[in-house]
């Protein structure tokens, strides 16, 4: 892999500052992290040397990322920045560097390569389901059971490999 797609956690962990690989991110993520090492202008140096490239995913990739995140049930946990990173991963088929579990789950469900930084990463991949611990019914969304009013909980239905 000769390039990586970085979410904000990769910048906070210092990945682009200690790697010779080309790195990509989106303008949404860049706006979120541009204060990092501002005194040393480290991000400016990465941009000037072309080791960090800011690229926007196309609308089809964004739609695919949103659809997939809704299919897995991770959509409510994802920010616009997270969706943009998944979309860029879809479009470029690059290795995504992230410690975010929701990004990892969606990416792995899409067959994308993801690498954690400061965690072990996710062990299980699957789809989230909302369930009622009171009447034991499953629901696609919501925070409260429409049948009995009990607060819904979430659990991961693991994919069988």
From TrEMBL:
Keywords: Hydrolase, Metal-binding, Nuclease, Toxin-antitoxin system. GO terms for molecular function: hydrolase activity; metal ion binding; RNA endonuclease activity. Pfam families: PIN_6. The keyword Thylakoid does not apply. One of its GO terms (cellular component) is preribosome, small subunit precursor. Residues 5-91 form the Ribonuclease PIN domain. One of its GO terms (biological process) is maturation of SSU-rRNA. Toxic component of a type II toxin-antitoxin (TA) system. Processes pre-16S-rRNA at its 3' end (the D-site) to yield the mature 3' end. Belongs to the NOB1 family. This is Endoribonuclease Nob1. It comes from Nitrosopumilus oxyclinae.
């Amino acid at each position: 892999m000769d390039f990586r797609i970085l979410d904000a956690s990769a910048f906070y962990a210092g990945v682009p500052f200690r790697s010779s690989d080309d790195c990509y991110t989106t303008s949404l993520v860049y706006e979120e992290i541009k204060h990092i090492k501002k005194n040393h202008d480290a991000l400016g140096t990465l941009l000037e040397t072309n080791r960090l490239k800011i690229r926007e995913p196309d609308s089809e990739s964004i739609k695919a990322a949103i659809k997939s995140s809704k299919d897995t049930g991770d959509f409510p946990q994802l920010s616009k920045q997270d969706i943009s990173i998944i979309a860029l991963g879809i479009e470029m088929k690059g290795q995504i560097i992230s410690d975010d579990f929701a990004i990892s789950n969606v990416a792995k469900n899409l067959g994308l390569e993801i690498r954690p930084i400061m965690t072990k990463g996710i062990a299980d991949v699957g789809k989230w389901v909302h369930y009622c611990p009171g009447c034991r019914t499953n629901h696609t969304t919501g925070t409260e059971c429409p049948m009995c009013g009990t607060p819904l909980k979430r659990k991961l239905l693991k994919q069988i490999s």
